[in-house]
Amino acid sequence: MPLQSFPEGFRALVIGASGGIGAALVEALRAEPRCASVIALGRATEPALDLADPASIERAANALAGQGPYHLIINAAGVLHGTEFMPEKRLADLNQAQLLATFQINTFGPALLLRHFSGLLDRQRGVFAMLSAKVGSIGDNRLGGWYSYRASKAALNMLIKTASIEVRRNQPNAVLLALHPGTVNSRLSQPFRGAEIGRPAADAAQDLLRVIDSLGPEASGGFHAYSGAELPW
Predict the structure, then answer these.
(1) Is 156 exposed, middle or buried (0-12, 13-18, 19+ CB in 10 A)?
(2) A Pfam family matched by this chain, by name (predicted)?
(3) N or C, which end of the chain is more exposed by having fewer CB within 10 Å?
(4) Using one digit for the tens of pLDDT, what is the confidence trace for 184-211?
């Protein structure tokens, strides 16, 4: 499905390109006939970008500025669990190391992406989309648990909303979005029946691109699901 809202020959950046959804987004954009360039960024790319390394974020933005402006920038990186921790089920599970590790990737790193990359957006049609999560919705929280993940995504949503207000002043056509990809069969979701209840990453990528394509500057700062539905904060 051609992305009709973007100009012929548009340029895209995908951060977190080694993850399941990130890799699927890169593949989908490379197959998009209107897309002239897709740059995949991650810890092992050149330039390297590590969300836990603020200096690498600034270096990557500076290195890529000359190839811009970019019509579409997507951050698909995120962390829910690691080799040393799983999502907390109760208050007694909370610990500072896990909170810091989760916020570093889901919140602090993306905040610096907003700082260094938002200025690289094309002034006529520029979208900066960040993968958030429905469990980051405060209004939709019915089950509790997953403290650091929920809080880090709620904070990410606030950063995107706040940045959209500032960016709009100088870049009125910019669109900053928080997107919920749904449950996808990926490393992030596999410990939580992701392989059983999740859909393929390629399907999620197509859904996300379809939503991005449908949203204009009036939607900047919004929180949307892969279906296009607006989600509560």
Answers:
(1) buried
(2) adh_short
(3) N
(4) 876 555 555 545 657 899 999 999 999 9
